[in-house]
C-alpha cells in the first residue's frame, strides 16, 4: 500500500540517526519500515479517535521493543538520542493524521526503551 498523506510520504523517518555509525543502517531501515507500516495501517483503518490511534501505535511500539534485541546484538541500543528521534517520529505521525492532541506518552506507552 502506498502512503497517500503527502506530509507523511515526504518524511524521512529516523533521519537524525543515520549519520551516527553507532546505529546500524540495516536496523534503522527496519525501524523506518515499522513507522511506514504504522502509517499504512492508519490510512487503511482510519481510527476515529485517540483510543483507535493508540491501539495502532501500541503495535508499532512493540515492534520497536523487539527490534531493541537486534540493536543489542549489533553492539548498539535504543538509547536517549534514538528514543527521542523515534518518539518524535511517532508524534509527527499522530499529528499528520489529525491527532495533534495525542499524548506522546500514550502513543509510545508500550515502549521498554
**What's the tally of helices?**
5
Please tally the β strands and state the result: 0
Order of helices and strands: HHHHH
* Strand portion: under 5%
Distance between the termini: 29 Å
How does the major sheet shape up?
Answer: none
What is the subunit arrangement here? Answer: single chain
- Sheet/helix structural class: mainly alpha
Mean pLDDT: 97
How many domains make up the 3D coordinates?
1
**Backbone shape:** globular
Low-confidence stretches: none
Tell me the radius of gyration. Answer: 13 Å
Helix content: 55-70%
Q: How would you sum up this structure, described in words?
A:
This protein is mainly α. It has one domain (17-107). It contains 5 helices and no strands. Helix 2 (25-45) runs antiparallel to helix 3 and helix 2 runs parallel beside helix 4. It is globular and about 40 Å long.
Features:
single chain; 113 residues; mainly alpha; 5 helices; 62% helix
Secondary structure blueprint with pairings:
Blueprint: H1 6-9, H2 25-45, H3 50-73, H4 80-96, H5 104-107
Helix pairs in contact: 2-3, 2-4
Summary of the model, kept short:
The chain has 113 residues and is an all-alpha fold. The chain has helices at residues 6-9, 25-45, 50-73, 80-96, 104-107.
Amino acid at each position: 500500500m502506498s502512503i497517500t498523506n503527502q506530509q507523511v510520504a515526504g518524511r524521512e523517518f529516523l533521519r537524525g540517526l543515520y549519520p551516527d555509525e553507532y546505529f546500524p543502517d540495516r536496523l534503522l531501515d527496519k525501524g523506518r519500515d515499522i513507522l511506514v507500516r504504522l502509517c499504512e495501517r492508519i490510512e487503511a483503518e482510519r481510527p476515529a479517535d485517540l483510543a483507535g490511534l493508540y491501539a495502532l501505535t501500541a503495535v508499532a511500539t512493540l515492534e520497536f521493543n523487539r527490534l531493541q534485541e537486534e540493536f543489542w546484538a549489533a553492539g548498539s541500543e535504543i538509547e536517549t538520542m534514538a528514543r527521542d528521534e523515534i518518539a518524535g517520529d511517532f508524534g509527527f505521525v499522530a499529528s499528520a493524521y489529525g491527532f495533534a492532541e495525542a499524548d506522546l506518552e500514550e502513543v509510545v506507552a508500550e515502549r521498554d526503551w
